[in-house]
Each structure stands twice: as C-alpha cells, then as structure tokens.
Amino acid sequence: MNKKLYPLIDPRGVQQRPVITLAPRPALEQLKNGKILFYDNTKLSFCNYGEVFVRIKERLREIGVSNFVDYRETVRGKDTRGLENYAAMLAQEKPVAAVVALGDMGTSPATCIVTIALEKLGIPTVYITAPPGGDLVEGVAVYRAGNLCLCKIDIYQASTAAEVREQIDLKWEYIIGSLTAAPERLKELAHIDFKMDLVPPAADGLLPVTGSIEVEESRLLEPGCYMEEIMDYLDREHIGDGLPVIPPTKGRLEKMYAYCPFDPEMVLWREVGPTGKDVNVRDVAIAAVMAGCRPEAMPILVTAFKALADPKYNLLQSVTTSHPGGNLVLVSGPIAQEVGISGKQGCLGPGYPANATIGRAVNLVILNVSRAVPGVCDLDCIASQAEFTYCFAEEPSLAQWPMINEEHYDASTTTVYVLKAEPQHDIIDFLSPDGHDLLDTITDSCTTLGSNNAYIPGPLLLVLTPDHGMMLKNAGYTKDMIREHIHLRAVHDVPMVRNRGLVPVRPPDLANRHPMPVTRSPKDVEMVVVGGRGGHSGVILPWALHSESIVLPITLPDGRIARSIQEFRK
Fold first, then answer.
1. Less crowded by CB within 10 Å, the N or C end of the chain?
2. 532 Cβ partners below 8 Å, 6+ apart?
3. Could you tell me the CA-to-CA distances from 363 to 13, 237, 291, 323 in Å, in that order?
4. What are the backbone dihedrals phi and psi of residue 346, each rounded to the nearest 5 degrees, phi first?
5. Which residues of the chain have pLDDT under 50?
6. What is the pLDDT at residue 512?
7. CA-to-CA distance for 48 and 364, rounded, in angstroms?
8. Which helix (H) or strand (E) holds 283?
9. How many CA atoms are closer than 13 Å to the CA of 284, on its beta-carbon side?
10. Any idea what the Cα angle at residue 97 is, between residues 92 and 99, rounded to 5°?
C-alpha cells in the first residue's frame, strides 16, 4: 500500500536562495583602458601568499593591462551591512573589474559577502580561494548569490613562492575568463556544483520525506515506527549532528512553547552562517525539540542566542571557523537549578539531560539553520566534542566567591554566559600543599604555544573543583587576586610567539610588551567552582578572534528580570 509519512517540520527553515545577475564583463580592450581593483583581506600578508596578486598582475601586464588600485583591510569584526558598505566604498574607485583574495580560512564567508556586493554594484569580480576555505565559499555563494566566479588554487602555509605562482598560472584561463567572458561562457564559469541542499526546503516548512506511517505522533520513536527511515533521511540531507534526534512534529513544537511567551517570529540573530538566514525563536524551538530539551529550557536558550548575537561575539565568523571550539553556555543563578542544569560532579560530561540537551540545541541551530555543516560548509580541521554540546551551571552550594550572576547583578538574577572556546583543558594537581603552589599550576595551564590566546589575548574561564577552590580561598585569594596573578604571569616570551601559530591580533598597548600576556587585563579571567572533590580542575581557553565572552540576564518578554522559571509558563 502507498503510505504517507507523518509530517515532520524542516529544521532548516525557509531559505531564500537568491540568484543574482552577475555584472556584464568588459572586453579585453576595456580592461586595458580601465582600472583593476585588487582587494586583499589581509590574508596575503603571511607565508608566500602575497605572490597571488604579484603573479596575477604580471600576467595582466603581459596582455597590456596595468592600471591597478590596491586595498587591504580585514573583514573581521564587520557584519553583513558593514561588509556591503565596505564594498560600496571600494566601488567608488569605479573599477572595470576586481580581484579579491584570499578565501582560505575564517575570513572566507565575510570576503564572499564583499565579492557578492561588488557584483551587485556592477563590478565584474573573481574571488581567489584556497583550502580549506574553497568549499565553504561555494556554500556561501550558493545560498546568498546562486552563482559567482570562484577560483580555487591549491596552496597552504608551506607553499613556496614558485608553487603559489604556478597555481596562478594553472588557473589563469579561469581568472581572465571570469573578468572578460561573454554571457554564455560566464554562466559556465560562475556555476557552482554544491554538495547539499540541492532541493531547497519546501515552502510549507515540512520535510519532503516519502514513505508512510499511520500512528499517533507520540509513537514516532517506537520500534517499527519509521525512526530508522527518518534518521536515514536526515543523515543523507546533512540535517542534525549525526546522533538520533526527536522528530520535530507540529505537536512537539507547540509543547516546546509552554515556557516560551516570546513571539516565535522574533529574530534572535541576523544573517549568520553560509545561508545568511535570520534565526528566530521558532528555529530555536525546533532545535530544542530535536535535541530532547524540556520546555523549561526555552528561556535559557533564548537568552543564550541573544548573547551569541552580540556583535562583540563575532558570530558571523565563529560559526564556520577552523578553530575546534564550541559555544559554551554557562548558567548562573536560581533558574539553573530550577530547570536541572547541573554544576555538580561530572557536569561537563554525560549524565545530565538539561546540560546535554541545551548545549546540543545551540549547535543544532548552527548546523541546521546556518548550515555550517562539517566537511561540506564549515572550516573545522578536526573539530571537537564541544561542538556537540557545551553547557553547565554554577553550583551555589560549592561557590567560594560571588558567582557570575552576583558579580554582574544579584543573587536572585540568573545569567547566561557564552564564550566561543576550546573544550576544557585538564589541570591536575593532587600534591600542592596550599593555594599558593596550586595557583602556579593553574597559571601555567592557562596557555600553550598551540593555543589561540598565545597570539590573540582574550577571555578565559577557570573551572575549579571544590577542593581547589577551598585551597585558594583558605590561602586568602579573592577572585580579583587570582585574576591579577594570572594576567601578570600567564605569558610567553616574545621570540616564542613570533612567526608561528597565528597572525597576532593584539590591542595597541600590548605591541611592545615583553613577555606577552595572554589576557588583555585581569578582567579577562573568569572562574567558577563546580564538580566533585579531587584534584582535576580545568581551564577553558578562548577562540578570542574579535570575540568576547558575553553575560546577559534571563528576562521576560517585557524586559523585566525573571526570578523563577514559572514566570514564563503560559
């Protein structure tokens, strides 16, 4: 019998998928008589990548093109409007064509937005990409423009100058064709073969799954009720995180709103990720269903997404960065205990449903709605378990000092702290006889030459066990004393952080510091006391690339600070 599957909501939401009209390409004679814009997003400044533009200009001169204008500025820290405004400024040069580079790492999506904006402004543009950014750029271009001239070259940090130049020569016909081709040829050059979402989400918001079951919605997880078929479809379409999910039906979505008096269409962040799709409360609620959240989790999730959307968090770049960090959600205050978020023994591991499901819901939104899918449209080199789930709470019964919510507000306010960060790094110390020696162990663990903060100073979070917290408290340390100690002593000798790791991003006042601190001030150091007794504390080190930790209170729709989860109940 022909059967029809119970309708499931598509967690990807509605994808606009515009197809832009590319700028008309000039003839070669026009190219010779006009100005060629070269835009470097600063990625050509290290290794031998600068040869990309050097060789392109040499090849252009060979055919009589020599009027070049150069711009160099980072795209980091700019949202979509800021990137489009920057493109408009470039367009004031009135170039007949543009060459943009380099789409290799985390700046790839933002630079693609600049490229798209130039095309919309009537400037023929070719965007040079390199691994691992090339695939990600294709995804951004598919979702936001439909077609674009993208030139992939195969270079990496150890490529010699000759190898970089050879790659340009290998792709020269594509580069010059992208700038001068007739319409039919341009259509071929700008076509993108993409690996997922070949069929956009349906207008009715439902997954186009075929097959059939005639059962009650509550039985969709039972053996024989097509759970395997549902998961096969989701895995095939790169929807979800690879683990089984709760099928998102309309009934389950309605139940998720029980503690969510916010408008489902309320936008929480704008134009983030490859799709450029706004994320609203409904998107978050669907992810919460799939993750297995209880309805009481929604006010925490809404607050977390508001915090992630703060411009200082740099969400546009963070969702597709090659850094293996996750989006840490740390809840401090009475609502955490009301909804069961744990700060007790093992709180950063398995066994606590609220911790696991809330953290998972955050990352499901990034995968499903923003479509930052590993191996397809994301830069993660090896990724980490922090990108499955990363959520815990402060435990009031263990606190040795004022908690985060008390420092920022008061004891009856619940706050959500978010940080783009590595998985927890273990700090083992079973032998230090007092808090003074212990603090030296902790300080030494706050950085390594392989950590982002060796090159980009920023926030970090100490996660102290009760034993270590008591030792520090008994030795007379306050939070501010610990912060000051770490800021002054968690450092690297300048020769050790020169010409390795990352291109440094530091405040001007650190330019001539020696040794080089991994924090900008003591305020960058945050700490909590959680977990079980013993000698394994931890430190959570940051991504820190134009990215701050953000703390927000949990508030009701009218802006009042919530004192209990019951205030949200409809």
1. N
2. 344, 345, 346, 465, 466
3. 15, 17, 9, 15
4. 75, 20
5. 1-4, 210-215, 223-224
6. 87
7. 38
8. helix 281-291
9. 30
10. 100
For the segment 346-377, what is each residue's pLDDT rounded down to a tens digit? 999 999 999 999 999 999 999 999 999 998 99
How far is Cα of residue 428 from the mean position of the Cα atoms in its chain?
A: 30
What gap in Å lies between CA 436 and CA 495, rounded to an integer?
Answer: 29
- Radius of gyration (C-alpha) of the chain in whole angstroms: 26
In three-state secondary structure terms, 304 is helix
Say how far apart CA 464 and CA 528 lie, in whole Å.
Answer: 6
> Among positive and negative, which fits the CA dihedral 320, 326, 332, 338?
positive
Cβ contact 362:301 at 8 Å:
yes
Contact 348, 423 (CB under 8 A): no
How confident is the model at residue 193, as a pLDDT? 93
Which pLDDT score is estimated for 99? 98
| Structural contact between residues 9 and 206, judged by C-beta atoms closer than 8 angstroms | yes
Return the residue matching tokens 């030459």: 449
Please give the C-alpha separations between residue 433 and each of 428, 437, 450, 466, 565, in angstroms, as whole numbers. Answer: 14, 7, 30, 15, 42
CATH architecture of 28-189: 3-Layer(aba) Sandwich (3.40)
Q: What are the Cα distances from residue 435, in Å, to 378, 451, 462?
A: 42, 25, 15
Res 10: pLDDT: 93
Distance (Å) of CA 298 to CA 24, 341, 390: 48, 13, 16
Q: Which residue has the tokens 């263990």?
A: 398
Output the six-digit token pair for 28. Answer: 């070669």
With contact defined as beta carbons under 8 Å apart, do 122 and 92 qualify?
no
Residue position matching structure tokens 């594509």: 174
Please list the helix, strand and coil fractions of the chain in percent, rounded to the nearest 5, in that order: 40, 15, 45
Alpha helices in 353-478 (DSSP H): 353-368, 404-408, 435-444, 466-474
DSSP 371-403: ---TTTS---SS--GGGT--EEE--GGG-SS--
Q: How far apart are CA 446 and CA 427, in angstroms?
A: 9
Phi-psi region of 243 (alpha: psi -120 to 50; beta: other; left: phi over 0): beta
The dihedral region occupied by 325, where left means phi > 0, alpha psi between -120 and 50, and beta the remainder, is beta
